[in-house]
Every structure is written in C-alpha cells, then in structure tokens.
Design a protein that fits this description.
alpha+beta; 22% strand; 58 residues; single chain; four-stranded antiparallel beta sheet; 1 helix
Length: 58
C-alpha cells in the first residue's frame, strides 16, 4: 500500500504525518520504519473531523 502525506506539508521532507488507505494506518514520515498506528476507519474519521472543527486547547 502507498503512504500519503498532506499537500499542505510541502516538499521539505520532514515532520509530517503520513496515512495509508485501506488499512487506516498513520506513521511519522521522519521514521518510516518506526511504529505504525492502526485505527478503525470510523475512529480516524472522527479524529480528523475533530481536528478540522475544534480550536486548539489553551
């Protein structure tokens, strides 16, 4: 499966979170051989929705 990062990340090559479709997995682009977080599709959608609609905590 192919890993993708946000188009907002630019081409700097570092400090990005990447996602993989089909398995709903997340990893750190700086450590591609490191741990992978696998989540249920509904949980990942809820998490991303909360990120888009919530204000950062003070």
């Amino acid at each position: 499966m192919t890993w993708r990062k946000s188009s907002y990340s630019g081409n700097s090559g570092g400090s990005c979170v990447e996602v993989r479709a089909g398995l709903d997995a997340v990893r750190d682009s700086k450590n591609v051989d490191g741990p992978v977080l696998e989540v249920r599709p509904a949980a990942l959608r809820a998490f991303l929705r909360a990120l888009r609609t919530s204000s950062p905590a003070a």
